[in-house]
Design goal:
Elements lengths: L4 H8 L30 H14 L10 H10 L11 H27 L10 H6 L1 E9 L5 E8 L2 E4 L6 H8 L3 E3 L5 E2 L6 E2 L1 E9 L6 E4 L11
Parallel strand pairs: 3-8
Antiparallel strand pairs: 1-2, 1-7, 4-7, 5-6
The structure holds zinc ion.
Length: about 220
């Protein structure tokens, strides 16, 4: 996230509407919530502090203090509140989503403070940079009725094969799939189950495409990796 320059800038420029939302900017460690309980933190603010440390670090490499950031993660999401290994894809999804919400919440708080309210379509730098659109196209082979369903995405999960390029993985992602046998489509026009084709097309690419490379594939027959 730090190496995505427009996102880095937006996070460094972040100004919480109501001052330090998590209290104690200068504190190396996060203050616990009331009665020592964990409460959800403004992760955008925590990233802002972390990025400030990283950006002001004169050395290109070397250690930096991340204890406060780790405490904020643990306080905000019970799933990560342990010392186990976690899935990086799951983590980035959660963090981006949280930062997106924090941007929107802060915009809302600023809007009410200025008396301007929130715009009709509030947006965040996370959305502006990473959100794309997928088009699910399902077509009944018998009557050729086609349904198109649009959905948004913030990253694409791609199967990878050895010695293949990213472009190849993208092409495979959009390969037409036959819905046959147990997977037949219940067609609204034919009113019966029919063989159909399904394809997923990237309808709109985001400015920055986040790709999740799936190194493991589950064999549907054996449930083995
Ligand atoms: Zn049909």
């Amino acid at each position: 996230m730090f190496h995505c320059l427009p996102l880095r800038k937006a996070i460094l420029d972040y100004k919480p509407a109501n001052g330090d939302p998590n209290r104690g900017e200068n504190s190396k460690e996060l203050e616990p919530g009331p009665n020592g309980t964990n409460t959800e933190k403004d992760m955008l603010y925590e990233l802002h502090l972390l990025f400030k440390t990283l950006a002001s670090n004169k050395k290109a490499r070397g250690p930096f203090n991340h204890r406060r950031f780790i405490s904020a993660i643990k306080a905000s999401n019970a799933l990560f509140d342990n010392d186990e290994h976690h899935d990086s894809h799951e983590f980035i999804n959660w963090l981006l989503d949280k930062v997106h919400e924090d941007f929107l919440r802060n915009q809302g708080a600023r809007g009410s403070a200025d008396g301007n309210g929130v715009g009709a379509n509030p947006t965040s730098p996370v959305q502006d940079l990473f959100m794309g659109k997928l088009l699910n196209v399902v077509r009944c082979v018998t009557c050729e009725t086609t349904t198109r369903r649009e959905e948004t995405f913030f990253n694409l999960s791609l199967d990878i094969e050895q010695n293949s390029s990213l472009i190849h993985c993208m092409q495979r992602f959009s390969v037409k799939e036959l819905l046959n046998l147990d997977n037949k489509l219940t067609c609204d026009s034919c009113l019966t189950r029919q063989v159909a084709t399904k394809e997923i097309i990237v309808g709109h690419y985001p400015k920055v495409l986040l790709v999740h490379l799936k190194r493991f594939r589950i064999d549907p027959r054996t449930f083995q990796q």
